[in-house]
Amino acid sequence: MLEELEITHLRGRSPLKLSGGEKRMAALAAVLAGEPTALLLDEPTAFLDARARRRLIQVLGRISAAQLVATHDLAFAGEVCTRALLLRQGRLVADGDAMNLLRDRALLEDCGLEAL
């Protein structure tokens, strides 16, 4: 998994010496090595540079585990999610096809999200 996430250079390094993005990718590699049937990802693109973000999208697209993602990164959501749930003040306001919901500018703005 280290090779697939392109983080072999982190092998043997102390987690205390890793950047935020490196820590996220190392943690993801550790979880994926266990071949989970489901993943719960909270803001998975936070602290990732563009290259690591792209690798994350590619890896998530290849694994068979069910994925539940909490994110404000709508471009990321559009690339990896087939279904989306939108919340406003902690309450569900929309549930449906991710691309349809992510194109609804008024709905996104009503939920405090910046439309793409």
Automatic annotation (TrEMBL):
Molecular-function GO term, any one: ATP binding
Residue ranges occupied by any ATPase AAA-type core domain in the UniProt entry: 4-72
GO cellular component, one term: ATP-binding cassette (ABC) transporter complex
Entry annotated with the keyword Transcription regulation: no
Enzyme Commission number: 3.6.3.-
Cited InterPro entries: ATPase_AAA_core, ECF_ABC_transporter_ATP-bd, P-loop_NTPase
Record key words, sorted: ATP-binding, Hydrolase, Nucleotide-binding, Transport
SUPFAM superfamilies per record: P-loop containing nucleoside triphosphate hydrolases
Name of this chain's protein: Cobalt import ATP-binding protein CbiO
Organism: bioreactor metagenome
Organismal lineage: unclassified sequences, metagenomes, ecological metagenomes
